[in-house]
Amino acid sequence: MKTALITGITGQDGAYLSELLLAQGYNVHGIKRRSSLFNTDRIDHLYQNPQDEDVRFRLHYGDLTDSTNLIRIIQQVQPDEIYNLGAMSHVQVSFETPEYTANADGIGTLRILEAVRLLGLTQKTKIYQASTSELYGLVQEVPQSERTPFYPRSPYAVAKMYAYWITVNYREAYNMYACNGILFNHESPLRGETFVTRKITRGVAQIALGMQDKLYMGNLNARRDWGHAKDYVEAMWRILQQDQPEDYVIATGITTPVRDFIRMAFEEAGIEVEFTGEGVHEKGIVRSVEGHLTAVQPGQEVVAIDPRYFRPTEVDLLIGDPTKAQTKLGWQPKYDLPALVKEMVHADLELFRREKLLKEAGFKIFSQYE
Ligand code: NDP
Ligand code: GDR
After folding, report:
1. Where does the record place the NAD(P)-binding domain (predicted)?
2. Ligand nearest to the CA of 369
3. Does the pLDDT of residue 369 top 60, yes or no?
4. Which residue's CA is the nearest one to ligand 2's atom 32?
5. For the segment 5-16, what is each residue's pLDDT rounded down to a tens digit?
6. What is the pLDDT at residue 366?
7. In the annotation, is 134 catalytic?
8. What is the predicted pLDDT for the residue at 365?
9. Model ipTM?
10. Which ligand 1 atom minimizes the distance to the CA of 65?
11. I need a surface site. Which of 1, 105, 112, 200 has the fewest CB within 10 A?
12. Would residue 170 show up in a list of annotated catalytic residues for this protein?
């Protein structure tokens, strides 16, 4: 039975990867941060009492900014595989917390690699580093492959660029099995609420249910290569099961503007939206509504631009070339974009139907964040 250690286990990918590894018979250990509120919603269904017999899912308190903590946990767990998914992962927030982002996302990766080396585990422990399509940044070529040069456009991407290269360097210097998965955007109903897809599907659900009037957005022209997180965590696992450690691009090869994602999400809720105007004056107006929805009226403005969501430097176009992953890893995504949008919109409709009932019964509803 193999043992895996996952940093960032409380995040979107950590939750799906835990499910996958447990189903494969792994012992799964995860590092979670101490928080004043519970932060384990996404993995609560996997929790086992430490007192139970045959416990295969265990959590440790820790942080990527704390070297001695990481060394102690890795020494205790003696993992066959480490998946380093922990990160301050929000691009826009990284402009506000650049130093912390560099520490957690950049030096945090070094701390993991160095802990494995110091503990003499270089020939036992395989390491997966959560690298990102944000490394490509300012467009150099499309589609972007393992050979495309990097041009990071945010403190997040610059920190991840350090993490990418330190992973390559430890592989070459110490003969470690350490790999980068260069993953393009991947989403799901578990996606953090302030990333664009989830912000849209939550907004659409609330507008459809009459709980919100309008969605305020940033750059609708940005284009992303969106896949489903479930497919992408399978690629992470496959990357660590090869004979040789290598880096791989994981993507669908199809790119879509944010504006079209919004259109598709509204359509899934029975609302047809058309866009008019340009730049900060662009608006999304309801053209037609399926009969059963009374909360939304044709002619209603449901999307507007708020320049606060523009980024100081933007990544305009991402489209990945997954040929290497397809041929070497035998990886094929099962979801396409319409299936992803459908799953996310219906999950949020369900969530907000319940929230609405609670609100109507006099209970406090959850906070709204941007
Ligand atoms: P999330 O933001 O959902 O999860 C991030 C995880 O990292 C959370 O568990 C978070 O803990 C944890 N974390 C944050 N800071 C620290 C820290 N200092 N020490 C330890 N843990 C920390 O991200 P995703 O699941 O979407 O992404 C997983 C990884 O993949 C990230 O590294 C991200 O940058 C990268 N990535 C993501 C892509 C995507 O499209 N989703 C694409 C390419 C790369 P808490 O819950 O307490 O906040
Ligand atoms: P990204 O994801 O920056 O690609 O990073 P995000 O969903 O935040 O943005 C995608 C694009 O949408 C545009 N956008 C908005 N974004 C947000 N969050 N909110 C808005 O209101 C809005 N309006 C338009 C953005 O400008 C951007 O162009 C994600 C993260 O998961 C990273 O950790 C990961 O590395 C990359 O994907 C691949």
Report:
1. 5-344
2. 2
3. no
4. 89
5. 999 999 999 999
6. 60
7. yes
8. 65
9. 0.99
10. 18
11. 1
12. no
The one catalytic residue among 16, 26, 128, 156: 156
Nearest CA to ligand 1 atom 44: 132
Would you tell me which CATH number, out of the four given (3.30.950.10, 3.40.50.720, 3.40.640.10, 3.10.450.50), belongs to the domain 3-183?
3.40.50.720
How far, in Å, from the CA of 23 to the mean position of ligand 2?
Answer: 31
Question: For residue 247, which of 337, 333, 127 has the smallest C-alpha distance?
Answer: 127
- What does the pLDDT look like over 242-298, one tens digit per residue? 999 999 999 999 999 999 999 999 999 999 999 999 999 999 999 999 977 778 999
Structure tokens at 348: 């949020």
Where are the domain boundaries for CATH 3.90.25.10 in the chain? 196-223+257-316+336-361
Each as own residue / partner, the long-range contacts of residues 262-268 (CB below 8 Å, 24 or more positions apart, any chain) are: 262/200, 262/204, 262/215, 262/217, 262/220, 262/303, 264/337, 264/338, 264/341, 265/200, 265/201, 265/204, 265/341, 265/344, 265/345, 266/204, 266/302, 268/204, 268/341, 268/342, 268/345, 268/346
Q: What pLDDT score was predicted for residue 53? A: 87
* Distance (Å, whole) CA 96 – CA 79: 34
Residues of the chain with CATH 3.40.50.720: 3-183
Cα–ligand 2 centroid distance for 324 (angstroms): 25
Ligand closest to 12 (CA) is 1
- Residue positions counted in the chain: 370
Q: Is the shortest distance between the CB of 134 and ligand 2 below 6 Å?
A: yes
Task: Answer yes or no: are the C-beta atoms of 222 and 216 closer than 8 Å.
Answer: no
Is 101 labeled as catalytic in the residue annotation?
no
> Using a 6 Å cutoff on CB, does residue 219 contact ligand 2?
yes
| Binding site membership of 159 for ligand 1 (Cβ less than 6 Å) | no
Q: Is the CB of 197 under 6 A from ligand 1?
A: no
Give, using CA atoms, the residue closest to atom 43 of ligand 1.
132
- What is the model's pLDDT at position 306? 98
pLDDT surpassing 70 at residue 370 = no
Superfamily covering domain 196-223+257-316+336-361: UDP-galactose 4-epimerase, domain 1 (3.90.25.10)
CB atoms within 10 A of CB 347: 18
